[in-house]
Design brief:
Layout lengths: L4 E9 L4 E9 L4 E5 L6 H8 L7 E6 L2 E2 L4 H5 L2 E5 L10 H8 L8 H11 L12 H14 L4 E5 L7 H17 L3 E5 L3 H7 L2 E6 L2 E7 H7 L1 E5 L12 E7 L2 E6 L2 H8 L4 E4 L2 H8 L6
Parallel strand pairs: 3-8, 3-9, 6-7, 7-8
Antiparallel strand pairs: 1-2, 1-4, 4-5, 9-10, 11-13, 11-14, 12-13
């Protein structure tokens, strides 16, 4: 089955910043988390996928179709949900729906009404007076009502309180169990990504650090803890990033087996979570 998203050797130079040779693929029916520090290129990549910004070089296919040549066909099958709703703040949800629905050939009014009831959303309340959680649910209702096969979400949980964030993530899990849709989910909240993503793509300074399944991540990275006396043995050559203090060091590695063989009795090897991987990867390079 064809990938929902295929990006090969993508480049975009802004002058002071560059997306550099990015290659990413997303199979159908899966969620990909897009992570990285602020300014790493997450939003720029999303805008290029959506044709809001033109790429310099590289190939992008959505549903197997050239992303620029078949822009209208692709936009019929995708939805974009983000955290900035200021353009609709003066409208109510019914008015927003009436503006958006005519653009989609497969708009399904019955599905929209079902989601409005499911989410208990007020159709006549102005968007600017609704909670962030309600606005995001409204955006999801619209996305599912035109049968979007690919939903792109840019920081959808950034302004939500913990309860609303948990509710949204539970909702996405529930919807993905019953539908063969795909989601690209950009967020700086790593616990959200760990909860729902099947794949994780990590950008740093416009470069692709990795794109892996969650299982591959857990197998590839570990935290190493030990005494400072070990730092004179060459162990740092195996580290991606390190934090030191007077009591010892903590470091991230993707060379678990060599460290285990050489230093097993001298260090503690713990699993690394996604936040650990991003934090230590952004520390000054050791090599």
């Amino acid at each position: 089955m064809e990938n929902v998203l295929d990006i090969q050797n993508l480049n975009k130079d802004y002058g002071g910043f560059k997306l550099d040779n990015i290659s990413v693929s997303l199979p159908p029916g899966h969620i990909m988390g897009l992570v990285g520090p602020n300014g790493s290129g997450k939003t720029s990549l999303i805008k290029i996928i959506l044709n809001l910004i033109l790429k310099d070089t590289g190939d992008i296919k959505v549903f197997g179709l050239d992303q620029q040549k078949y822009i209208l066909e692709i936009k019929q099958r995708i939805a974009f949900i983000h955290d900035d709703h200021k353009y609709f703040n003066h409208l109510n949800l019914k008015q927003v729906k009436n503006i958006i629905a005519p653009f989609y050939q497969n708009w399904d009014e019955a599905i929209f009404n079902d989601f409005i009831k499911k989410f208990n959303l007020p159709l006549n309340k102005v968007i600017g007076e609704m909670s962030r959680g309600m606005v995001t649910k409204g955006a999801l209702a619209i996305a599912f009502s035109h049968h979007a096969d690919f939903i792109i979400m840019d920081e959808p949980t950034a302004s939500l309180d913990p309860s609303s964030r948990r509710e949204l993530l539970d909702l996405l899990r529930e919807l993905m169990q019953h539908e063969k849709r795909s989601i690209l989910f950009s967020s700086h909240i790593t616990t959200d990504i760990e909860q729902i993503a099947d794949y994780v793509t990590f950008l740093k300074e416009g470069k692709l650090v990795f794109t892996k399944t969650k299982d591959e991540l857990s197998e590839s990275y570990a935290l190493i803890k030990g005494g400072n006396d070990l730092l004179n043995t060459g162990i740092e050559n195996h580290f991606i990033g390190i934090r030191k203090n007077e009591f010892g060091f903590e470091a991230l590695t993707n060379e678990i087996d060599p460290i285990r063989k050489k230093y097993n009795n001298s260090v503690v090897i713990d699993p690394a979570n996604l936040e650990d991987i991003i934090y230590f990867s952004t520390l000054k390079d050791l090599k």
